[in-house]
Amino acid sequence: QVQLVESGAGLVQAGDSLRLSCAASGLTFSNYIMGWFRQAPGKEREFVSAISWSKSTYYADSVKGRFTISRVNAKNTVYLQMNSLKPEDTAVYYCAAKTSGGTSVYITNDYTYWGQGTQVTVSS
Questions:
Q1: What is the pLDDT of residues 43-53, one digit of tens each?
Q2: Tell me, what DSSP letter sits at residue 121?
Q3: CB–CB of 58/106 below 8 Å?
Q4: Among 14, 80, 111, 119, which one is most buried in terms of CB atoms within 10 A?
Q5: What is the pLDDT of residue 88?
Q6: Where in the chain does DSSP place strands (E)?
Q7: Which DSSP state fits 85?
């Protein structure tokens, strides 16, 4: 049984930092690209960032230069370091996993497994 468990939720002020973690179990971690998505109230879920087994990274333009994705393969864990947070970053953040190769890392429906989500709230 595959599980993705996010942690690191928080209420912070604009300009603050926060780090999200996602611990994966029940899958062969090396076979998966790990991604972060977010969904704000009334909006569709959107791509934030992704990282391959070899640590190639991908970012949405809205977070480039502020967010950093990383993974520790030995711990089956992926992180999202979020700096210079803005109120528009407020959303539920989801960890997701997709098999490597072929499809785009940016497309929500291409991800097979999802975490339960963790709330990030940034006040102005």
A1: 999 999 999 99
A2: E
A3: yes
A4: 80
A5: 97
A6: 3-7, 10-13, 18-25, 32-39, 46-51, 57-59, 67-72, 77-82, 91-99, 113-114, 118-123
A7: -
End-to-end alpha carbon distance in the chain = 40
Give phi and psi for 84, each to the nearest 5. 50, 50
What is the predicted pLDDT for the residue at 5? 97
Q: Which two tokens stand for residue 73?
A: 């393969």
Residue 124 CB coordination number (10 Å): 9
**50-108: per-residue pLDDT in tens?**
999 989 999 999 999 999 999 999 999 999 999 999 999 999 999 999 987 767 899 99
Amino acid making up residue 67: F
Residue 105 one-letter amino acid: V
Q: To 5 degrees, how large is the angle CA 79–CA 81–CA 82?
A: 140
Query: Which 8-state DSSP code applies to residue 102?
Result: S
Distance CA 16, CA 24 (A): 27
